[in-house]
UniProtKB/TrEMBL annotation:
<dbReference type="Pfam" id="PF00675">
    <property type="entry name" value="Peptidase_M16"/>
</dbReference>
<keyword id="KW-0645">Protease</keyword>
<feature type="signal peptide">
    <location>
        <begin position="1"/>
        <end position="20"/>
    </location>
</feature>
<keyword id="KW-0482">Metalloprotease</keyword>
<protein>
    <submittedName>
        <fullName>Insulinase family protein</fullName>
    </submittedName>
</protein>
<dbReference type="InterPro" id="IPR050626">
    <property type="entry name" value="Peptidase_M16"/>
</dbReference>
<keyword id="KW-0862">Zinc</keyword>
<dbReference type="InterPro" id="IPR011765">
    <property type="entry name" value="Pept_M16_N"/>
</dbReference>
<feature type="domain" description="Peptidase M16 C-terminal">
    <location>
        <begin position="193"/>
        <end position="370"/>
    </location>
</feature>
<dbReference type="Pfam" id="PF05193">
    <property type="entry name" value="Peptidase_M16_C"/>
</dbReference>
<dbReference type="InterPro" id="IPR011249">
    <property type="entry name" value="Metalloenz_LuxS/M16"/>
</dbReference>
<feature type="domain" description="Peptidase M16 N-terminal">
    <location>
        <begin position="36"/>
        <end position="183"/>
    </location>
</feature>
<dbReference type="InterPro" id="IPR007863">
    <property type="entry name" value="Peptidase_M16_C"/>
</dbReference>
<comment type="similarity">
    <text>Belongs to the peptidase M16 family.</text>
</comment>
<keyword id="KW-0732">Signal</keyword>
<keyword id="KW-0378">Hydrolase</keyword>
C-alpha cells in the first residue's frame, strides 16, 4: 500500500453534523463503459478523484498470485506523460494527498486536492488508465517494495497472519480463491515475465472494468466536460471480464489448525466462520454480533475473559463481508498457561447466550447509537464518501446503498441477532486455530 499525506489533511473532514444525512450524487456511463459518479459538496474547497477497478486477489490465476496487489504499486511508477518516480512529487506540489489499496475484490486509487486542482487529479488517473509504462525496471523496483511490505506487515509483525488473514482464510476456503492472501506469493511474482504484467494491465485496467468517482467542491457540468475530455477517448483493451461463480462447500465438521508466529510470546485461540456476502442483510446482523461479543472493552467477551475470569489479555474481532462471502473471526490473546478446553468453553458459552437469550434493551440501543456514529464518521469527508460510493456501486451493484446502509442497521431486531447467531455460529461450521509462539510447521492438527 502506498501512502502520501500532505497539508490537505485539514480539509478532509467535512462534517455532516450530529446525525446522518442523505448523500446526494449523480451517476452516468461514458460510451467506453466507464461508470461515473459525482457527488457535489461545497462546504470546503477540496475534491477527491477516485478510480476503482474490478480486479482483486480473487481474480488471479493459480501460479500468479499477488498480481492485483502488485499493480497497486506498479501503476505509480509512471506514464507516458508522468516521469518515472514523479507521481508523488506532482501530487505534493499541488497540495494534495494520495493512496491506493487492494482487497480480494477490487483495487482502488485516489487523490485528494484543493478543488481548483481537480483537473490535475482527472489527468493523473486518466494517465494511469491510458498510458501506464510497464517496464522491467519498474517491475524489479516494485518487487522489492512488495517483499519489504510483506516482511513488515506479515512475516515480522506480531499476529500478522491473523490481522492480514494469511493464517486464517487458507483454512476456511478450500475451493474459493478467498483462501489465497491478497499480497500473494513472492515466488509467483519472481517467476512472472514482463509480458504477463502487460497482459494483466490490458485485461483489467479498462474503462469497462472501472468506476470513476469525483466528490467534493465541484461544478457538476464543468466536471462532466473534463471527464469527457480526459476519459472519453480511452479505449477498452478487452471485453468485459466474465467471472466464474465459485461456490465454497459449506463447513459441516469443525476444522482444527495450528499456526506459528515467531514474533509473539502470547498465544491466541481463534474461531473463524464463513458468513454471508456484503449484500446480504444477515451480514449487517453479524456486524452487530461482532460488536456484542468482541467489539472493544465493553464487549461481552472482554468483560468475561479479561475483566472477570482474567484468562485473556485481549479479545480479537475481525468481521468482514466481501463480494462473494464474508468471514467472522473471534478470539483471545491468552493470559498464563493456555487451558484450551476452558478457553473454548468460555467462548462457546458467550455464543450460546446470544443463541438462547435476547440482548437487553440497553445493549440494543447502544448498538443503534454506535452504528449511526460509525456511519456518520465514515461519510464525514469527501474522501470517505468517494470510497463508499465506488465500493457500493462496484461490489454491491447499487451506489445508493450508501443511503440505505443505516436504515438496514436500524431494522435489525433482537430476534434477528438471536436467529443469525444460531444460523452461522455453530461449532461444526468453523475453524479453530491455536496460534502459537515459535516457528514450527504450519499444518492442520486434530485435537
Amino acid at each position: 500500500m502506498r501512502k502520501s499525506f500532505f497539508a490537505l489533511v485539514l480539509f478532509l473532514f467535512v462534517g455532516f453534523g450530529a446525525s446522518a444525512q442523505k448523500v446526494e450524487f449523480e451517476e452516468y456511463k461514458l460510451d467506453n463503459g466507464l461508470h461515473v459518479i459525482l457527488h457535489q459538496e461545497n462546504a470546503a474547497p477540496v475534491v477527491t478523484v477516485g478510480v476503482m477497478y474490478q480486479i482483486g486477489a480473487k481474480d488471479e490465476v493459480e501460479g500468479r498470485t499477488g498480481f492485483a496487489h502488485f499493480f497497486e504499486h506498479l501503476l505509480f511508477e509512471g506514464t507516458e506523460n508522468i516521469e518515472r518516480g514523479k507521481w508523488f512529487d506532482i501530487v505534493s506540489a499541488n497540495g494534495g494527498s494520495n493512496n491506493a489499496n487492494t482487497t480480494q475484490d477490487r483495487t482502488y486509487y485516489y487523490e485528494t486536492f484543493p478543488s481548483n486542482k481537480l483537473e490535475i487529479g482527472l489527468w493523473m488517473e486518466s494517465e494511469r488508465m491510458l498510458h501506464p509504462i510497464i517496464e522491467q525496471v519498474g517491475v524489479d523496483t516494485q518487487n522489492e517494495v512488495v517483499k519489504e511490505e510483506k516482511r513488515q506487515r506479515i512475516d515480522n509483525a506480531p499476529y500478522g497472519k491473523i490481522i492480514y488473514r494469511t493464517g486464517v482464510d487458507n483454512h476456511l476456503f478450500k475451493k474459493h480463491p478467498y483462501g489465497r492472501s491478497v499480497i500473494g506469493s513472492m515466488d509467483d511474482l519472481n517467476a512472472a515475465q514482463l509480458e504477463e504484467f502487460i497482459d494483466f494491465n490490458q485485461q483489467y485496467y479498462n474503462p469497462n472494468n472501472a468506476v470513476l468517482v469525483v466528490a467534493g467542491d465541484i461544478d457538476v457540468e464543468q466536471t462532466k466536460s473534463l471527464i469527457n475530455d480526459y476519459f472519453g477517448p480511452i479505449p477498452n483493451n478487452a471485453e468485459p471480464n466474465i467471472r466464474e461463480d465459485i461456490v465454497e462447500p459449506a463447513i459441516t465438521e469443525t476444522r482444527y489448525a495450528t499456526e506459528y508466529d515467531a514474533n509473539i510470546q502470547i498465544p491466541a485461540y481463534i474461531f473463524s466462520y464463513i458468513t454471508p456476502k456484503s449484500v446480504d442483510r444477515d451480514a449487517y446482523v453479524l456486524d452487530y454480533i461482532s460488536s456484542i461479543l468482541t467489539g472493544g472493552n465493553s464487549s461481552r467477551m472482554y468483560k468475561r475473559m479479561v475483566d472477570q475470569d482474567k484468562v485473556a489479555l485481549q479479545v480479537l474481532a475481525f468481521n468482514q463481508a466481501n463480494q462473494d462471502y464474508g468471514t467472522y473471526t473471534m478470539g483471545a490473546l491468552i493470559k498464563g498457561e493456555p487451558d484450551w478446553d476452558a478457553l473454548k468453553a468460555t467462548m462457546d458459552d458467550e455464543i450460546k447466550k446470544l443463541q438462547t437469550e435476547l440482548i437487553s434493551d440497553k445493549e440494543y440501543q447502544k448498538l443503534q447509537n454506535q452504528f449511526e456514529t460509525n456511519y456518520v464518521e465514515a461519510n464525514s469527508s469527501v474522501q470517505g464518501i468517494a470510497s463508499s460510493l465506488a465500493t457500493y456501486y462496484m461490489l454491491q451493484g447499487d451506489a445508493n446503498r450508501i443511503n440505505k446502509q443505516l436504515d438496514i442497521y436500524r431494522t435489525i431486531t433482537k430476534e434477528d441477532i438471536k436467529r443469525v447467531a444460531n444460523e452461522y455460529l455453530k461449532p461444526n461450521q468453523r475453524v479453530e486455530i491455536k496460534y502459537l509462539a515459535g516457528s514450527g510447521p504450519e499444518e492442520d492438527s486434530k485435537q
